[in-house]
C-alpha cells in the first residue's frame, strides 16, 4: 500500500516528524518498506492563467491562438486542445519552464505565430492521466499564481507491504492508528453533523444470508457528476488509482482513507428493495468492465426487486453504473464474509481494491461511518439532498474475550513485562481489557481479527517492546557436527565426482513428455495441474535428459568441459514407499560424460574417454559393485548395465543410444547413468578392509590366453584370486586384443606368500596350476607365459 | 734411466682437455693417457726392469701422474656435465603463459556450496539435516502450518498443484519438513532442512519456478524469543562476517508467532532482508501431535538470495541455466 505523508497527516499530526523517523516506525511496526520517495516536482515558471480571447490560427486548422492573462503579462499562446472557452482558468508553462520528462518549454514559432509558452493538461504536468485535454482550474484562482502553491508540491510517499493478517492496516486510518501508538499522538477526528433532507424511496436490507453481516446505504439526489477535487485527484493518482469521476473517485478515496469499500449505483435504475442473496447457478451479470459473468451459488449478488445489480464485494453491474447523466445515487457500504468474497474473486479471476479488503476482513462496525465519510466529502456541494443513513446489521460479529496469563508472556519471550508497559500497549491498541494479578482478559477492537488467542497479544507486546531490545542467547543441540547420513552421503559422492573433473549442475524439475519418454517409457509421469508452461508440464522421471541439455548447451557455447552430475529428485506416479499420499519420488545422482571435450586443442586431442573411464569413476564412488547387462531404453544395445551392490540394483549406466546421439548432433559418444541415493549406505562405500603387507619377494607372471569373444574377463581374475587366496595378490588384465573372431587376453599376476620366498619349482607349480585350471574351467588356451 | 717427463705428459693432457667438445671426448682422453696403450702403461711395464730403489721412485712418479690425471679428468668432467645440463635446460623454452591443461568444470554448484556452508554453521551448534518429499500434500504445506483457507499463498497463481482437488502440490516452502519431522520425532528437535521448493513463477532475472530454501527448527524446553534472536545473529555472523549488523523487524507467517524478518546492513548501508523466522505457532504443535505448550522457533532462508547477496549475482536465471561460464566462477 502507498502512503502519502500529506494524506496521513489528515489522521495524525506527523508533519513535523522526519521521514526517516516515520520509516523506522513503519518498519518496527511490521510494515516492510518496499519503496520510498520524496515528491518535489519542479513547477518553476508554471503559473495560473486566465484565457481572455481565442481566435483562429491563420495557417493551421488544428490549433487555436489564445490571449492569456498570466498575471503581469498577457501572452499569445498557441494551443491544440479544444476543451476550454474564453474565461477558462488553466495552468500555463511559461518560457523557460520544464514539464513532464524534463521537457523544456520556450518561446516557439508555430506556423508563423510565436507561442509564449504552453497551456498544459494534467498529464503534461505529470499529475494524472487525463484524456480530456487542458486541465481546468478553479475559476477563483488569480492569474499569475504560482502553480506549486495550489498543488501539494512537496510530499513523501512510502510503499509498504501489509501482511495478510492485517487487513485493518490497508487504509490511512489503519496506518495512522498504528503510528498513533508508536508516536503517542492522538488520532484526529473526522466527524461532522449530517442533516438528512429527503426520505428514502428505496428499501435496503442485508438479506437472509449470514455471508452479509450488514448492509448500509444512503440515497443522494440532485448530484452533479463531474470531476473530483484537485486534491482528491492528486491523492488517488499518487496511490495508483485511476481517476474516473467525482462519485467513483470519492468511493475509492473513502476505501483508501478508512478501509471501507463503497459502491455507487444510479438510483434511478433501481427498483424496490435492495438486498443480498446467493446467486443462482448459471445466473449471469454483466460487470462494470462489460464482461458477462456466469455465477453459481457460492457467489453473492446484490439485487433489487427485478435483477442482480452487483457482484457483492467484487464489482458492480454495468446496468446500474453511474454515468455522466446520473443525478440520483444510492451508495452502498456493506460487510461481506471474507471467504465468500475470496472464492468469488478467485474463481472469476477478478481482484479489485474492494475484494482484497473484504478478503482480509474489514472493520465490522464501520459501515455507517463509511457512508458518513462519503457525505462529508460532499459538504461543500450545497445543491445535493441526502437521506437518512440506513444500516441493516445482523449483529453476528463480535470479537471474543481472551485470557492471557502473564506467565505465558514470560515463557515465550523470556522477559518480565511491567504492568505499566502492558497497560500502555493495550491502550495504544485500543483493546478493552481487565487486568488481574496473574492475567489480562482482553477483547480486541472490531477491526482486529488477528488477536483471538493469547499468543496473538504476546506478539503485540513483543513488537512494542522492540524486537531489537531483546537479549540474544544461543541454545545448542546435543549432537554437534552430526549432519546426518543423507547429507554426508551426498557430500561424499559430490567430492568424488568434483575431484574427477565432474561439474555439479542444478536444473529445473519440469520437462516435456519426450524427455521422460526417452529413458522411462514404462513409467507414468507426475503432471503439474496448473503448469506455468504447457510445454514443460511434467515432473522429470530421470536426470539424464536434463544432463544432456546441459551438455548440449555448453557444447554449443564452446565451453570446455564434458562431465556433469546432478543430485536431485525424480518423480513418477507409482506408490511412494516412504510417504503415503504423495507420488513416488527418489533422490538420484545422475552423471554424464562424453568421449571427448566439447572443444579441443592439439594437446588435448588424444584425451579420449570411454566406458572404462566411467567405470573407474563408479569404482571410486562405490568401491565394489557388479555390473549386469540390461536392455534399457535410450541406451546402446550392448553398453547398458545395471549396477549391483550388496545384491540389489542401485543404479544403471551405459552409453547413449547411437541414434539419439546422432539426432542430437553430438560428435562424441555420451556415457551416462543414475545411482539411487536411498539405496546407498555411506559406511558401506567407505568400508576399509586392511590387507597386511607380505614381507617376501613377489613372483610375477604375464599370461596370454586365447579366449572367446563373449567371455567376461573378470571371471578369470576372480578365479585366479580364488586360487591364490592365501597370498597377497595384484591381478590385472593388461591386454585385450580382438581381431575378427579371435581374442587374446593378457593377464598380469603379481603374488606374494606370507610365509616364504618361492623357489623356481614352486613358482612353476603356481603357473601350472593357474593355467591348467583356467584352461579346463573356461575352455581357453594359454598362448604364452612370461615369468620374471 | 729412461724416464719420461711427467710434467710434459701432464701439460699435453691439459692441452687435450681444452679441446673437449662433447662428453665422450673425456673417454678418449682417458684412454689416451691412462689406457692400455698409453705412455703411462708402457712405462709401468718397464718398471720391473729397474732396481728396487729406482722402481719405487719411478713407480711413485708414474702413480702421481696417474692420480693427477684422474682427478683432473673427474673434475673437468663434472664441470663439463653441469655446464652441459645447464645449457640443455636453457634450451627448454616452453611458454608457461599458455594454459594447456584447461580449467574444466569441477566444482559443486554454487547453491550446493551455500547450502553446505549453512548446514555446517548449524551442525556446529547441534543441528542435523532432515529431509522430506518435494511433491507434498496440501495438508503438510498449508493446513498443518496453520495457513488459513483464505491465505493468498494457496492461490493457483502462486502454488503449483498436482491434482484438480488441490490436495497435492509441489511444496512451496521447506517448512513442510518441520511438520514431517515433528510427526516422527519427539523433542528435543534441532534440525535444518535444505531443499528445493516450487512456485508458479516464470524464470526471469528475479524469479524462478524452482528455488532452494533451508528451514531450521528447534523445539526444546524453555526456548524463547531471545534464543531465536541469538541463533540467527550467530548464523549471520558466521555466514557474512562478524562486522555485519543485523536487525529484526516484525512480520507475519502463519506458522510462527511472533514472526520476524532478519535484515543485515550491507555494504552501502542498505538493509537487506535475508530470512524469516518466528516462534512456532501453537497450532502447528497441535497439528503434529505435540503438546500445545511446547516451545520452539523456526526460520527459513533463501539459498539463492544468500548467494546473490554474497557474490553480487544479478540474475536468478544463472543458477539454472548451467552455463559453465557461470558455474566455474564459484
Q: Could you walk me through the main structural features you see in this protein, from its secondary elements to its overall organization?
A:
The complex is a heterodimer of chains A (788) and B (330). Chain A is an alpha+beta fold and 788 residues long. Chain A folds into six domains: 2-40 and 155-183, Phenylalanyl-tRNA Synthetase, Chain B, domain 1 (2-Layer Sandwich); 46-149, Nucleic acid-binding proteins (OB fold (Dihydrolipoamide Acetyltransferase, E2P)), CATH 2.40.50.140; 203-393, Phenylalanyl-tRNA Synthetase, Chain B, domain 3 (3-Layer(bba) Sandwich), CATH 3.50.40.10; 402-469, 2-Layer Sandwich (Phenylalanyl-tRNA Synthetase, Chain B, domain 1); 485-685, 2-Layer Sandwich (BirA Bifunctional Protein, domain 2); 699-787, Alpha-Beta Plaits, CATH 3.30.70.380. Helix content of chain A is 24%, strand content 29%. In chain A, the strands form eleven sheets. A seven-stranded mixed β-sheet of chain A has the order 28-31-32-36-35-34-33. In chain A, strand 26 and strand 27 form a beta hairpin. With 330 residues, chain B is of the alpha+beta class. Chain B folds into two domains: 6-90; 110-327, Bira Bifunctional Protein, Domain 2 (BirA Bifunctional Protein, domain 2). In chain B, the strands form two sheets. Chain B has a seven-stranded mixed β-sheet with strand order 1-4-5-9-8-7-6, with helices on both faces. In chain B, strand 6 and strand 7 (256-265) form a beta hairpin. Chain B starts with 5 loop residues before the first helix and ends with a helix. The relative contact order of chain B is 0.10. The mean pLDDT of chain B is 91. The chains are: A alpha+beta (788), B alpha+beta (330). Chains A and B meet through helix 6, helix 9, helix 11, helix 12 and strand 28 of A and helix 5, strand 1, strand 2, strand 4 and helix 8 of B.
